[in-house]
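Note to self: user wants both folds in one dump. Writing first protein now.
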Amino acid sequence: MPEVRVVGADGSNLGVLSTDEAIRRARESGFDLVEVNPKASPPVCKILDFGKYKYEEKKKQRDAKRKQTVVEVKELKLRPKTDDHDLMVKLRAARKFVESGNKVKLTCRFRGREITHPEVAAQQFDFLLSKMEDLVNVEQRPTMEGRAMAAIVSPKPGVLHKLAQERIQKERAALKAAADGHPLPEDPDAEPEELHEADDEDDDEDDGDEALEGEEGG
């Protein structure tokens, strides 16, 4: 481009300059020449610190992302015969999901004659919900959905407020690191490590049980 409209580092309008002249002035100021509005005629460039400009743009994107937070629904699957040890594993996973700002859907699937004893699943749900009442609001009480029972919980406002405060602290730490010339800390909005829900290990055993039941019936 032969010429550009230039905005100085202090925000002043330097007018339309040749591109070479604009670059020279930026170098003399110890800054960079950055195109900020390529669609204008002539294009608009600003003399600024490009590293700081990139960081501020990234911060704006993080702020916008935080205002448009999408709450995910994590699902944890149970079986009527889930034992006490595995139930505690599910509880720890559910609490970690909620503490990360996610909703949690608890699902207990029934197979064969298990569906004739929904009270077993109801007891599991009562236990889990009672152990999470400090963190969650119950959006959906345990309800039958076909051959499954399901409940949904969401983080209490206090949990979300704590997460927001932690983000602010991390952003302040990032700004201080940038000002001191240190490497920036991890992105405060980076996705947390995913908690992988293992497949039911007893599915094959269930299939075998049902086959045996059929043979005995025959």
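First done. Writing the second protein, which came from a different request thread.
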Amino acid sequence: MDFLDVNDNKKLQELIKHYENGVNVFVLIFMNGCGPCEATKPKWQELKNKKWENSIVSQIDKDIIESEDGVFNLNSVKGFPTIRHYSKGKKEKDYEGERTPAAFEKWINSKVDSGADRSKPTSVHTGHFSKRKRGGSRSKRSRSKKRSRKPKYNKN
């Protein structure tokens, strides 16, 4: 299928029809003036020349879907830009991946070619949030070998 630049309500309705007809919809939701969005859009647009069976790649300005109550709404968007796969109306957790055309293409291929469960849409969040440290709440010292404990004060 094609690349659809959703910049008005008519094109939004076209995208909704694709979704309702069982087409995999891959969407970049962006906000004008957002630095990370402006950096991601040209890389996402490089997918214009790619074709996937029963799939459409699109980009939507958040202002177009701000009042949308249906499938493409902002209720679950946590930051911008958000890249999401819609298929039958559900969403999985966000994915923080590379913002490169190759990474986008690999992700789309994995959803289209693998025979993945089409009833569970997935999303890719590529926003500009700080990454939390992983590995639990224990400090580095508590993970190291037990050390002999010395009294904190001396009794003379």
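Dump finished. Worth passing along: Confidence is low (pLDDT under 50) at residues 116-125, 128-134.
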